[in-house]
Design goal:
This protein has about 400 residues and is mainly beta. The protein has three domains: about 110 residues, Immunoglobulins (Immunoglobulin-like, Sandwich), CATH 2.60.40; about 80 residues, Immunoglobulin-like; about 100 residues, Immunoglobulins (Immunoglobulin-like, Sandwich), CATH 2.60.40.10. It is about 5% helix and about 30% strand. The strands form six sheets. Strands 18, 19, 21, 22, 23 and 24 form a six-stranded antiparallel beta sheet that branches. The chain has a four-stranded antiparallel beta sheet with strand order 4-3-6-7. The chain is elongated. The N terminus is likely disordered. This is Fibronectin type-III domain-containing protein. Keywords: Repeat. It comes from Bicosoecida sp. CB-2014.
Length: about 400
């Protein structure tokens, strides 16, 4: 499904068994309050992402906290948020945690900053359900979505933030989408978010919920990929009718067979150099527009498609014109560098006076092209066979 980025790891990660006790977590951070409860984010996203469980303790802020008069919350929390209930209104509390895995426990974290419960129930109403996220832009390995309330407000209270989740939308199982939180589950202010390190040509779904001191909303409806559509409005490329699938990373095509290698140079010491032509730019749709419309098309001098696609790689083989001879890998079997101006590869150790032919294929992230046509025969130490025959 951008080496995978942290976001992609969040979608695909499979955790390895622990080999040592976890490190001491950071102090918990207040996330939500009511008159009788506080919710905190546990020990930083790293510990939660590593698959640790947490033990949670709380106490009153001030002298009792200094005396370490702590109350332990029953059971374990698997993160990333823990809620302490049964508290008194308008009272300051502190919370601390320790991480646990199969090897053992960490030390207790520092205490959180004092967290005051609300004075009365209902001081802060829970936020309304936000609308589904909207598509902004796609590249081969990123998706940008917009989330939050459409009027740009914080909903019903200044503390309102949003939790965004994504799920690979292809091949749904019986349980539906497997949702994973973006930004390591840390609530964010409304705006745009870029999910990075994704596989090309892959559909994703998104949903969002709002949270504040009064509680949290239900999840929005899922924003799901659409079928490819065209538009006659917007950018020039959109007006040209570029097909775009929203919430889907741009596809990378398997390249076409490159041109046959061309003679460049040969020496009497048994070397032949051939030139590899620069690829033609490949037009690739790009996706932009907050409402899911098409955006500008384009290509790259590498011929690999979307701008964030990896450059094409080229592999060259050579052989004699004898029907019994096989092909051998040039350049030690390594890729030949081919830029906007083309590229060259030199093969040494050849027999002077013998005829050789060359061929090349190109590879993208999507796969390998067919082999090119075979080059014109080249006589080592003389040049193209046709020219050598005229001497």
């Amino acid at each position: 499904m951008a080496t995978p980025s942290e976001e992609l790891a969040g979608l695909l990660r499979r955790r390895a068994p622990a080999t040592e006790a976890p490190a001491t977590p950071a102090a918990p951070v207040a996330e939500r309050r009511t008159c009788t409860s506080v919710s905190v984010r546990l020990g930083g996203s790293g510990a939660a992402a590593a698959g640790h469980e947490f033990h949670v303790q709380w106490g009153r802020s001030g002298l009792l906290s200094a005396l370490e008069d702590w109350t332990t919350v029953e059971g374990v929390v698997r993160g990333p948020v823990a809620t302490v209930t049964g508290l008194s209104p308008a009272t300051e509390y502190v919370v601390r945690v320790r991480a646990h895995n199969d090897v053992g426990d960490s030390a207790w974290s520092p205490a959180s900053a004092p967290i005051a419960t609300l004075a009365e129930s209902g001081d802060v109403p829970a936020p309304p359900v936000p609308p589904p996220p909207t598509h902004v832009k796609a590249t081969a390995h990123t998706l940008t979505v917009r989330y939050g309330y459409r009027d740009g407000t914080k909903g019903v209270h200044p503390t309102t933030a949003f939790v965004l989740q994504a799920a690979a939308a292809g091949g749904l199982g019986l349980l539906g989408y497997s949702w994973q939180s973006c930004n390591n589950g840390v609530p964010m202010v409304g705006g745009s978010y870029v999910l990075r390190g994704l596989p090309h040509g892959t559909p994703f779904a998104f949903r969002v919920k709002a949270t504040n001191d009064g509680g949290e909303s239900e999840w929005s409806e899922a924003a799901v990929p659409t079928a490819p559509t065209t538009t006659t409005t917007g950018s020039a490329a959109a007006a040209a009718g570029k097909a775009v699938t929203t919430f889907t990373t741009l596809p990378i095509a398997v390249p076409a067979a490159p041109p046959a290698p061309v003679f460049n140079n040969t020496t009497k010491s048994g070397t032949v150099t051939v030139a590899i032509a620069a690829p033609a730019a490949a037009a690739t749709p790009s996706s932009s527009g907050a409402s899911g419309g098409a955006g500008g098309g384009g290509g790259s001098s590498s011929g690999s498609g979307p701008p964030d696609a990896k450059p094409l790689t080229y592999f060259v083989e050579y052989g004699t014109t004898s029907l019994l001879a096989g092909w051998k890998a040039a350049n030690g079997g390594k890729a030949v560098e081919v830029g906007a101006a083309g590229g060259r590869v030199t093969v040494s150790g050849l027999d002077v006076g013998s005829e050789y032919v060359f061929r090349v294929y190109a590879a993208s992230e999507a796969g390998a092209s067919p082999w090119s046509a075979t080059s014109e025969p080249i006589v080592c130490g003389e040049g193209p066979a046709a020219a050598a025959a005229k001497k």
